[in-house]
């Protein structure tokens, strides 16, 4: 079969040759996608241009029992699908974009397809109302309840049709005796019909069609008849019914109260009088003043302006809209505090409505529908129809932010542009960049992703060149398997996390050899990967160094592993020996020698630890000697001193510190006399004072060099001798240093000595 999709004004005629399964039902979603429900439970989704988008299944049970009947419905959750299977069970999906199938309970006694049924949304729950003969049932997720419509009539044998209002508040039943029963849906969910709250609407009605006769039936006995020239299809809307035929599209709705007040014959409503007043004013007739006075005397001028503005919104002819708005503007002149927002907003809304109702566009929205769908949805519908220039003009006119308006529209245009396969990649990329530039809110990566989805990889890469954010470029490049380019972009960005992301992706995607070769050409990535391996994969790090013949780093790696991985002395020594070999290959004599000395020290520490039972392993040479001295292992300490050629000054410092810490003052004195001290004798004074033994410290003061003798006397507390020494040296700075240590009360005599000495120095 050939399927044809036309716009409201028959501007766009899209034909689709159907080659799939048997279609049971066709319906539109809220986002204007077309659903084809097949008898096997498969639902195919097409856009308004007849392009296939995706499909989904209503489940195995539907597949096994086949689809007898189906309906598309709308709710707060989105667009849904309800299926009646050959087993006479219902399956529902409330939102096709978040598919969750629900199998409704079995209907008792149902042996054949129900006479009629309809989907109802009540309290955010999907229900089905169905008729089986004259019996009426309500199904929800958990139960099936039989209900009896009040005042249905005893002569009714069957309910042949069911209809529910667009807002799911009203229900209409058509019976086999030709009657229509109407009631609030809530009548079935109240404990008592009399307790239900009545609707504010006083004129509910049903539109029905028989052949070419259209009837509007209300609660009264009056009926409105329309004789049609062709067969039509009725589509309910929030404020009326669309009548769609093969060559005509009409809209039937209740006349709004404001229009009734203004245009009703002999109407004395303030809006009608204001309209007449304006007409007379244009004729330069004094009747204009009479009409105005009549309105003002009743204090209804404000209401009159409101009625004219509101009536203008419901009119479809631009000339009549202008007439009503001029009348409202005329009335505003006589009101001192009329808020301008209402008039300005209506004027702007009507300009938008007239633009989309134009014969070249073909979206005949009514004013209530325009208010219901919001400006954002209207822009989406224009974009869906690829009416990009009009969309941008409306956004600019309505002062919609660039991020929500023009930028978003241009992004959609660009995504559509990349699908035009007849144009070359360079041309499309250049046109898109010329049009978009650096427009805020535009993501070139999203446009590139659409190009890639359309099979245009090279175009996607060209578009990514315009994407300023590397974090958006790299993931798509990886998806397109352009790993080298992704790595290059990540390194350019300077974002180490991004580089790590690419490197890890390459590691998982490539063979080991190719991965290492790729990193060889990218020093930054290689360095970061080495850091990663150092902490996470040491063995891989060794492989990297081996591949590069990097003997220096291999030596470092062996040293590191000897301390981090090896637990036995033999293992550690072996690892260090391997390090020596690598350092020799790298011609690093210093590193090789130091490592050999470490091996020697490690063996010595191991031997000492076994002999003494004390811990020596992993001490530095300095700490090893110091601990031997503390443990009175003087011979062993001196042996290390000789074997490792420890400098004399360092060894003397170690021995002085160790003997003082042991409080072995006698041995310290002997050591000071053993030979001339390479560090002098000030360290002996300092270490004794440090350990609070000024008595021992005084033994070494006389041996201290003249330059440090004053300082030594101060340290042991002999200020008098310090003054004499400083006076002999004629050093004013040393006298001042002593002066700082004196107090006027206890050191009065010393202070006098210092002052006399300073006076003598000044005289000379």
* Total helical segments: 32
What top-tier CATH class of the domain at 3-219 fits best? Mainly Beta
C-alpha geometry: elongated
Radius of gyration of CA atoms, rounded to a whole number: 49 Å
The residue fraction in helices comes out at 40-55%
Q: CATH homologous superfamily of the domain at 3-219, by name? A: YVTN repeat-like/Quinoprotein amine dehydrogenase
- From the 3D structure, determine the CATH topology of the domain at 3-219: Methylamine Dehydrogenase, Chain H
Unreliable segments of 5+ consecutive residues: 191-201
Average pLDDT metric: 86
User: Architecture of the domain at 3-219, according to CATH?
Assistant: 7 Propeller
Largest sheet geometry: 4 strands, antiparallel
Task: Provide the spatial order of strands within the biggest beta sheet.
Answer: 3-4-5-6
Protein structure class: alpha+beta
Subcellular location: Late endosome membrane; Lysosome membrane
Domain Vps16 C-terminal: 442-759
Domain Vps16 N-terminal: 15-345
InterPro entries: VPS16, Vps16_C, Vps16_C_sf, Vps16_N
Explain how this protein is built:
The protein is an alpha+beta fold and 764 residues long. The protein has a domain at 3-219: Methylamine Dehydrogenase, Chain H. The protein is built from 32 helices and 23 strands. The strands form 7 sheets. It has a 4-stranded antiparallel beta sheet with strand order 3-4-5-6, with no helix packed on it. Strands 7-8-9-10 form a 4-stranded antiparallel beta sheet. Strands 11-12-13-14 form a 4-stranded antiparallel beta sheet, with no helix packed on it. The termini are far apart. The model is unreliable at 191-201 (pLDDT under 50). Belongs to the VPS16 family. GO terms for molecular function: actin binding. Residues 274-301 form a coiled coil. It is a peripheral membrane protein. One of its GO terms (biological process) is vacuole fusion, non-autophagic.
